[in-house]
Amino acid sequence: MLVLTRKAGESVYIGQDISVTIVKVNGRQVRLKIDAPREVPILREELRNQEFDLDLDSLMLKTELTN
Questions:
Q1: How many Å apart are CA 2 and CA 9, to the nearest integer?
Q2: Rounded Cα gap, residues 37 and 17, in angstroms
Q3: pTM for the full model?
């Protein structure tokens, strides 16, 4: 894991194709700009967790149907 300190207007690069720029800091809220290829999925944590929960539900249903 890497933890960085950045100010508004500063960027971090991930590989050659992805950049994350701090657009605005307002109290405890940070606005980010992410530039990445279209094929790279970008999800907020709560959506990723929801997607993971849906995958587990689907897997459990398939398991119940085969038993």
A1: 19
A2: 7
A3: 0.68
Cα 33 from Cα 24, distance rounded (Å):
10
Which of these, 45, 47, 40, lies nearest to 18 by C-alpha position? 40
Mean pLDDT of 25-49: 90
- The Cα–Cα gap between 31 and 20 comes to 10
Contact (Cβ atoms closer than 8 angstroms) between residue 21 and residue 2: no
Alpha-carbon distance 67 to 58, whole Å?
15
Sign of the C-alpha dihedral computed for residues 12, 10, 28 and 34 taken in this order: negative
**Higher pLDDT, residue 43 or 37:** 37
Three-class DSSP category at 60: helix
